[in-house]
Each structure stands twice: as C-alpha cells, then as structure tokens.
Amino acid sequence: MGKEKEASGTGLEIQEEHDKDIKQRETWTNKIDFLLACIGFSVGLGNVWRFPYLCYKNGGGAFLIPYFLLVIIGGVPLFFLECAVGQFMGVSGFRAWAICPLFQGIGISSTIVVFFLNCYYNVILCWSFYYMFSSFALELPWTSCGKWWNSENCYDFDQAQSPFVTNVTNTAGFSKLLCSNSTRTYFALFNESGVVRNESYPNQTCVPNHLRLDSVQEFWENKVLNISDGIEMENMGEIKWDLALTLLFAWVVVYCCICKGIKSSGKVMYVTATSPYLFMLALLIRNSLLPGAREGVIFYLKPDLSKLGDMEVWVDAGTQIFFSYSIAIGALTALGSYNKFNHNSYRDCIIFACANSGTSFFAGFIIFTILGHMAEVQGVDIANVAAGGPGLAFIAYPKAVSLMPGAPIWAILFFLMLILLGLDSQFVGVEGVISAVVDQWPNLLRRGYRKEIFIGIVCVCNFFIGLSMVSRGGMYVFQLFDYYSGSKIILFIAFFECIAIAWIYGVRRFYDNLEMMLGFRINPYMAVSWTVLSPIFCLCVFIMSVVNYSELDYKRPTKPKYFFPTWAVGIGWGMAAFAAVWIPLMILYRFCKMGFSRETIKYLITPQGLKSHQLRDQDRNEMPAEVKYAAPADNSKFDPPEYQEKNGGNFNPAYQSDINTKL
After folding, report:
1. How is residue 632 annotated by DSSP?
2. How large a percentage of the chain has pLDDT more than 70?
3. Which pTM does this prediction carry?
C-alpha cells in the first residue's frame, strides 16, 4: 500500500479535478460528430497523395492486394481498439492508458509521434495555400514554359507542333526527327530510294527527350520549393518567405478552428469532411476523357504479381494503413474519449473503414488517369512520368486542373478541397496533443483561458519547427520527418497496444466492457485480431521494415538520386527512438521507483482510476464500498442502477470523478 502511495506521488500519475472553477470535459454534441471527426481526421491528404504515391512506387495494382488484406487484419481492429479505449476511459494520452499501468508509456510515445506529425503535416497545407493563392490569375502559372523559373529543359508537351516540325515531317522521304544531345538542335533522317540522308538544322533548338520537363514539374521544384541539391548546411539555403507566410497563415487557421475545443471544431467538420468528395468526382470525370487515361487505369489496377515477393511492398502497405487510419498516434483515443459512454462507436468504425479505404482507392483513379495522360503526351512510360513523394499530388493534380475549361476556377476549388481535407486532419492532430496534456494536468490547464493560451503555445512551437521545411532544402527535412517519425515507429507502438489490452488487461474483460458500453456483444473476430492477428501483423511488418531498410533518398527527374548523409539519418533515427523509448523507459521507471516485487507487478497490471460504471459485477464485488459507489463529478442523463439505489443521484460516465481509484 505504501508503494502505491509512493507511485502516485511521482507526478506522472493522474491529476484529478478538485475545484469547481475547473471547466468540465466536453463531449460530442451530436452522435454523428464522432464519425465525421474520424473521417475528417484520417481521410485527408494521405489518401490523395500518399496512397497513390505508394501505388505508383510499387507498380500500381500489386500494391492493392497487400493493402486491402492488411486493412482487414490490422487496420480496422486497431482503429476500433484505440477509439474504444478512449471512450471507455473517458480521457486521452497518458491517462487513458492507466487501463494498463505497465504500458502507460504508450500514451507518451503516441503523443510525441502526433506532435512530430503536426510539425510537417501543416507544411502540406502551406503548399496547398500557396497553389490556391497562385491560382487567382487569368492563366495558371504552371501551364506553360517561358517563365523566369523555367529552365532550358522546360517543354510544353501540350503545345501543337511548330510549323518547322510540320514542314520537316511532311517532306518526301522523311524518316525520323531527332534532337542532338550535344548541340540541342534538330536533325532529321531521310530515306530516299534506299539511301539514308542526315540533315541538320542548327537554328532550330530543341530539348532531348530524356531531359524534357513539364512546366508543372518545374513550377513545383523551381518556383514553389526552389529546391536545393541536398540537406547539407551549405545547401539548406534561406527561408522562402512566401512559403513561411502561408505556413503562418495555415497555423492561424488551425488555431482558430480548435481554440474553443470540439464544440467549434466539430461543426467545422460538417463542411471539411464532406465537400471534398464533390470536387474529386468532377476531377475524375474530366480526367477520364483525356487521351492516355485508360492506360493509367490499367497501370493502377493490373497487378504485377512478382512485386508481391518484394518485402518493401508489404512494408509500405502496412505503414500506409497506419498512416491513413491514424493508428498509434493518440488522436483516435482523444476522439473516442469525447464520446458518451454508451455511444455505438463500433458501427461508426465500420462505416469509417469503408469511407477511408474507399477514398484512397477512389483518389488513385484521379491520380493515375492524369499520369496516363502525361505519359501519353510525353512519350514515356507511366512509371517514369513524375517524381515520387508528396510532390506527386502537386504535379499530377495541378496538371489535371490546368486541362479543364475555366482552369483557374477549377484550380481554386481543387486546392480549397485539398485544404479542407488537410485542415480537419491537422486540427484533430493538434487536439490529440492538447487533450493528452490537458487531461494530465486539468487543475492547471482547464481554468479560464489557460487552455486557449496553451494551444497557442503549441501552435507557435510547431510553426517554428516547420520553418526548417520551407527553406530551399526544406523538402529534404520534410522527407526526414515523414520517413522516420511518421512511419515505422508506429508499428512498434501499436504492437504494445495489443499486448496491453488483449493479454494484460484481458480481451474477455475488454469485450465485457464493450458490451457494457454498446449494449451488445461485438463480432468475435476483433478478439482474434487483437490477440493474435494484429500483434503478428505489427511485428512482421516492423521486422520486414528493419530487414528491408534502405537509407532515405530523394528522386528528381533528370537528376541523380540523392542519398541523405549519415548525420541526417542519425537525426531521423533519433526522432524515432525518442518517441519509442518511453514505453520501456516507463516500465523501468515504475520498477525502480516501486521496487521489483509481486505486489508491484500486480499493481502495474491492474487498471487504475476506474469508476463504478466501468466495473463488471465480478469487479465490483472485489471493491470496497466507497469505491463501488464513487460520487459523480456532475449530472447527466446516464443513471447507473447501483448508484441510484445507493445514493439516488446521477453519474456522468463521460467525465472522470474526483476519486483516483486503485483497483
């Protein structure tokens, strides 16, 4: 007993609300708010650029097979697990994982991961704002060459043939028109009565096929990014202040959306989570009418089964599921914690899974129809038509809207759609950090305007970190964050989530808790998945990612592949380790503080802070009377029979009471 008191005095334990001046924790206003929040958060930019990019990188249709298989094995079960833990505990972050104190470090690790994610995710919004502001013109700036940012390799693929080319190709005996790599001038081959003749045109300049770059590509790399040759200090260059201002604007918008909590952000999601689908449908219809669109769809859907033997395809599929489903970054626990205790989150999670994966699949058609068209007009293979990475969406999509009638209007609407997709993802991500910290220290932060001030401080910190990604070498910093802090490490965290709930807390007990919340017994497949399939999935993909690990690189058209220096890779692994280390570190801390004994182990595998409405009958029979009927924090419509009989009062299961129960 003394050790328990000592542990609770460490400053890392739950801090309970004791003062009437402390604001109560919010819940969703309407039942649909939770579903829209999940869709708005997880269905975002990752669906429209990361999923198509991974399909593009891994040979198109071959990627779809492991993706949908792993969605069933790991994606849906883990998504529901996190939401259910948040809803059951009624809090987020470190405090939510008091359900299994041994692995309470999960709450810290996931909060750090989502903090890193927030730093670089808003940079994508910054790029989207930049494109939208650039679209307010009579002619889109990326539609043609001849601008100050265009290089000598810029080529207008969509232009009609010049009179010179037409005259040469119509000449008798014409065989082939070529471009000299050395002189960059045309020469033609003629076959006249079996005699091959070579004729040069020194006054007619040209761009060799293998060096040609689309104006869209050059606008992205030379104008928006002004990208340098690497991440080295001498290549980082100055901050692009136009991007810095749009990044600041993006953070101001995010702050305005979340400063008043879920009451305001929940309403915003009615627009941000639904309207993008109308724009995506219009783009797909237009793209489907372009030459080459059919070949793009074939590349997207036709699987190269030999690719399935490549471990990298499976690793990318697994990490994409975690990325698009927002698993193991703490935000889902935060969203679930705002639910009423008896909300049917199981139904919402199934609907969400269909919406999420369906959106990714749908976005793939938009990307690959335009890639097929670009390959058609450039005369190259689809696999080589554009650079990979996040830039794919800022090349393929701008190209698509530039081909539509009234292109500037469509561009403004499209990038507005992209912003709406990203905004709700971003401010829910920030809310994941905020709620984790506020739930840990409610006495300090849930008073007056302290929470709003704290949100502002977090946004400012993220903004200053993001400034490194809007310099000339910023894309390399962005890739570093994305590759190391936002991918493989979340597999590690999710594995321990399954162990904590299914094996230590007990999958049968958690099923009983779900039945208490939902009013029915869910499909037994979830238990099988949490106990066996999902942990194996997380472990296998993590091991494969380690075995198949390759140093981070960045590919640009007509440029040699860039490999990141050793020190940059070290920083990347440092970020990943800083997020992951809290799980074992908290275990060691607990044992060092409390001593290694049977009592300590029993304490660390016993859930802490549960209230009367969270206990099963067999749990309640083991509790002292003062814990069985813990006094409520406030009133609500939920009235547990046990409490009514004992005290004749009400109990709010969505809000934690004053008692820090040691179960």
Report:
1. P
2. 86
3. 0.82
